[in-house]
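so my prof wants the structure for this chain in the tokens format not the other one, which i didnt know existed until like an hour ago. anyway here's the sequence
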Amino acid sequence: MHRHNESSIWTRDFIMLALANFLMAIAFYFLISTLPVYIVRVLKTSKSEAGLILASYTIAALIIRPVAGYACDNIGRKWIYIISLFLFSLLFNTYIWATTIAIMLMLRFIHGLAWGFTSTSGSTLAVDMIPPSKRGEGIGIYGLSMTIAMAIGPVVGLAISKGDHFNNMFITGGALSLAGLVLALMIKYPAYQPHKVKFHFRNLLEKKSLPISFNQLMITISYGGLLSFIAIYGKETGIANPGIFFIVYAVGIAVSRVISGKIFDKYGPKTIVSIGILLIIIGFPILALEQNYAGFLISAGIMGLGNGVVSPNFQAMINNMVESHRRGAANSTLMTAFDMGVGLGMIISGILSDRLGLSGSFLISAGINGFALCYFWLYALKHYQKHMLAK
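here's what i got, hopefully its the right format
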């Protein structure tokens, strides 16, 4: 495959792709923070109905990712990305007319399908642009666009929709995402010859990626619980503004992404991924046991550092094991595991917190990550070392 520059990550096209992803991600995080409020206040739903609507987005992405990966490998990355990004952007304005629960449920599901295609194809294109010798660093940098958006998107979304001005937020989100589409149309994408393989369910997932994807799923279970219940836990423990957790968390991710990728490229995944998982293990007991403002923020920073190491390095690992014509399937396999882990984490943490309280649930999350670390040492790492391709 042709590359513009075999030695540099910082090409014009890679920067524009990262910026396009950043603008799309800000729009995505607008909805994460404001849509639950909109659904309850404007559509007058119950919390259980709101939960179903919100879950439909993740379910749709989970279903479509393997198909998106197959399409990237067998049709081509460029137009899959551009068309899905266009649809993702266009759908923002349709929220204005989603005035019933049924329409909102359908719209949210369709939006999740577009998100699954866009995020899968975008990450695959990023890997295509990154020199193999700098894959860990490049994936970490590309992921920063999502991390920074995670920190500022909810804040901006809430500010724009303040006073129940939700339509302004929907229009702004659509405009930002369309601005990302403009950048995407200006990119000169790496040449790619589609690898025609007959459509079959066994071709939708990449077998070589499964052990590391399962490792990702185990770790993401704890993230799903954190994402769902940290605001409630913060209020229970007397934290005035629980949202600060994700700002500190995002800072931790950003710092570790910049550093860990270079270490991965130079020394491999064994030490750096082990450190990342250990940081997550350490962070949960601090959150559960130090029920004060300092413990809240320290745990956010430590777990942000840990997750900022693990996710991009797992992605680098799965891409180091497959040929270019299987990158779409490999990335979709990992992302499917991520989505599945988040969904399971929401369910498991809810059940555990009813019986043990949220602090007990977070302690068990530390244990789950302990199993994930053992699995990494005993199986996932050996699998990677056996199947990795020469760079």
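also thought this was worth mentioning. The chain has a mean pLDDT of 88.
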